[in-house]
Amino acid sequence: MEIESLRVMIGGYNCNAACPFCITKMMGAGKEAPKTNWRKFDTACNYSMKGGAQSVIISGPGEPTLYPKDLTETLRKLEKYQFPLIELQTNGYYISTKEYNKNLQKWYKQGLTTILLSILSQDSTINSKAMNIPYYNIEDNIKKIHSFNYSLRMSCVMYRGGVNSPETLESLINFARKNKVEQLTVRPIMKPPNPKGAVYEWVKKNELSTIEQKRILEYLESKGARILKLSLGGIVYDIEGQNVAAIGWPTTVPPDEDLKQLLILPNGKLNFDKRYRGAVLL
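The structure corresponding to this sequence follows.
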């Protein structure tokens, strides 16, 4: 099996945000962080390296920066494998605070290369309200992330009440360019696989229509130059010097079915397709 990347889930289900589309709400799981199975963690890392993985994405069922000790230990365990790229996916609030400065310094020395900042809007007030998260200034946080020598990947989920048109997308791209964001990822909000519950109903009401998605894709194709096809599905455009990755759109490049992103959970379960419970290696 050829492996593109390894996603490492750390911590428990605690989160300082309350995004209405978060599928964690559907899992009914407790908030206690499970004990990490480090033996299976090492097996997953070795398996990924032999499969050609070049990157690791650290995330969680909750907000990973709520578990700084777990993150520090995970980075320490990863050091011997020398993955070229290690990303941390976060909603950004805690790393915006002074209390996390020492952690940011330490994690950089441990090999963390990139902060993957999840947003719903580049407008700090709208973003905080949409994610039900304490307010922080996104522009200031980007400057802070760069000041600690991290690269920044900003990922925006597009939905009807947020970035939802060529005009609002262009505003987001201009914001990213102005703030020297290394990569911007845009993806439409997607319904969870289980067609039940409040999360599914919220997404159903707020997902972009087929016409809205078509307009956005036409904008990307007309304004951007295709510079890369992503192996896990999607296209990267250059739009006046800004790197923009479009992932999860109906007419973008389908994923290579022979190339996988592995997902390792704290309990040691190793999954090769997060859509299916039966896609388990360990």
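The chain has one domain: 2-271.
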